[in-house]
């Protein structure tokens, strides 16, 4: 399981999450940041600092946010 960045991050890209990630699994895409689900260690540091509350644990995603997990996988070629 991993954390997932969802819709509130689109066009926002504040970036606090990148600064606190201990394993550098967050990368900037064209319109938002993405968390690499293969590297994420589920520490929750990113979720705690997100100013737009866009980061959720994969198991806690609501149905409308589930495509963001797939987008992250595709972004990282998984």
TrEMBL record:
Any GO molecular function? 4 iron, 4 sulfur cluster binding
The prosthetic group or cofactor this protein requires is: [3Fe-4S] cluster; [4Fe-4S] cluster
- Cross-referenced Gene3D superfamilies: 3.30.70.20
Q: Where is the 4Fe-4S ferredoxin-type domain?
A: 31-60
Q: Which residues form the signal peptide?
A: none
Does the record's keyword annotation contain NADP? no
Give the SUPFAM superfamilies listed for this entry: 4Fe-4S ferredoxins (SSF54862)
**Which UniProt keyword terms apply here?**
4Fe-4S, Electron transport, Iron, Iron-sulfur, Metal-binding, Transport
Query: What InterPro entries is this protein classified in?
Result: 4Fe4S_Fe-S-bd (IPR017896), 4Fe4S_Fe_S_CS (IPR017900), 7Fe_ferredoxin (IPR000813), RnfB_subfamily (IPR050294)
Annotated coiled-coil segments of the chain:
none
- What role does it play? Ferredoxins are iron-sulfur proteins that transfer electrons in a wide variety of metabolic reactions.
Q: Name the PANTHER family for this protein.
A: FERREDOXIN, OXIDOREDUCTASE
Q: What is this protein called?
A: Ferredoxin
Q: What is the native source organism of this protein?
A: Salimicrobium halophilum
Question: Lineage in the entry?
Answer: Bacteria, Bacillati, Bacillota, Bacilli, Bacillales
